[in-house]
């Protein structure tokens, strides 16, 4: 019986009609934007015209994201994984899961950070991009080897080799000039009498000797 009209009889549905209206005995007619649930004759499910990616269709053309996902600002029916903190040099492919870009590998100290990979060890420098070495301060790129950095000496290292920034290591048979840190003098043993030591254990006589 219709409570508003005693002369009108309404159909009875044994179970409440969810998102629809009881239009005949135990028969539910779905509201606009809903479709009959094949598993439950008195239940109507919302219809989304596009698939709800990583979420659930909870109302007509309305997608509710799964836990760990948030709405794609470019597509209302797509849910994107959330990574916190954000993924450095990679892509967030699942909640708090970072997949590294090509040429990068996972940082063992930080699961959300990807570090560049250099196929050869970066000597006296740091791998700052895939197969790219950035030299430490006081070093410059070796023209013969892109992953090797050579020390820079602001003055030439005479009779020696530049082994660290502004540091000269003398060749065998030479010792550091006490007046010039970047100059190496030949050593004569014993010392040269009435002459000058011009090469290791080589004496050049003074004029008149």
Write a brief caption for the model.
Pfam families: C_tripleX. This protein has 209 residues and is mainly β. It contains no helices and 22 strands.
Account of the 3D structure:
This protein is mainly beta and 209 residues long. Among the domains are: 1-47, Laminin, CATH 2.10.25; 118-152; 160-205. 0% of the residues lie in helices and 52% in strands. The chain has no helices and 22 strands. It has strands at residues 20-24, 27-30, 34-37, 40-46, 55-59, 62-65, 69-72, 75-81, 90-94, 97-100, 104-107, 110-116, 125-129, 132-135, 139-142, 145-151, 160-164, 167-170, 174-177, 180-186, 195-199, 202-205. Strands 1-2 form a two-stranded antiparallel sheet. The model has no long low-confidence stretch (mean pLDDT 90).
Helix vs. strand class: mainly beta
What's the multimeric state?
single chain
CATH class of the domain at 1-47: Mainly Beta
The strand order across the widest sheet is 1-2
Give the SSE order as H and E letters: EEEEEEEEEEEEEEEEEEEEEE
Q: Report the biggest beta sheet as strand number plus sense, adding barrel if it closes.
A: 2 strands, antiparallel
Average pLDDT reading: 90
Q: Cα distance, first to last residue?
A: 141 Å
Low-confidence stretches: none
Domain EGF-like: 12-45, 47-80, 82-115, 117-150, 152-185
Protein name: EGF-like domain-containing protein
InterPro entries: Cys_rich_tripleX (IPR003341), EGF (IPR000742), EGF-like_domain (IPR053255)
Pfam families: C_tripleX (PF02363)
């Amino acid at each position: 019986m219709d409570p508003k009209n005693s002369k009108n009889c309404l159909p009875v549905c044994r179970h409440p009609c969810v998102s629809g209206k009881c239009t005949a005995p135990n028969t539910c007619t779905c509201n606009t934007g809903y479709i009959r649930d094949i598993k439950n004759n008195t239940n109507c499910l919302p219809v989304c015209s596009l698939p709800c990616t990583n979420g659930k269709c909870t109302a007509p053309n309305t997608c509710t994201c799964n836990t760990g996902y948030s709405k794609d600002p470019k597509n209302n029916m797509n849910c994107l994984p959330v990574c916190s903190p954000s993924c450095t040099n990679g892509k967030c492919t699942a909640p708090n899961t970072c997949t590294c870009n090509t040429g990068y590998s996972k940082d063992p100290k930080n699961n959300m950070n990807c570090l560049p990979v250099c196929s050869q060890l970066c000597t006296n420098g740091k791998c700052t991009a895939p197969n790219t070495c950035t030299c430490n301060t006081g070093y410059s790129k070796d023209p013969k080897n892109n992953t090797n950095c050579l020390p820079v000496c602001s003055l030439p290292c005479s009779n020696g080799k530049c082994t660290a920034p502004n540091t000269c290591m003398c060749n065998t048979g030479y010792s550091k000039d006490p007046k010039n840190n970047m100059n190496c003098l030949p050593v004569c043993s014993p010392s040269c009498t009435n002459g000058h030591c011009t090469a290791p254990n080589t004496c050049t006589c003074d004029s008149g000797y």
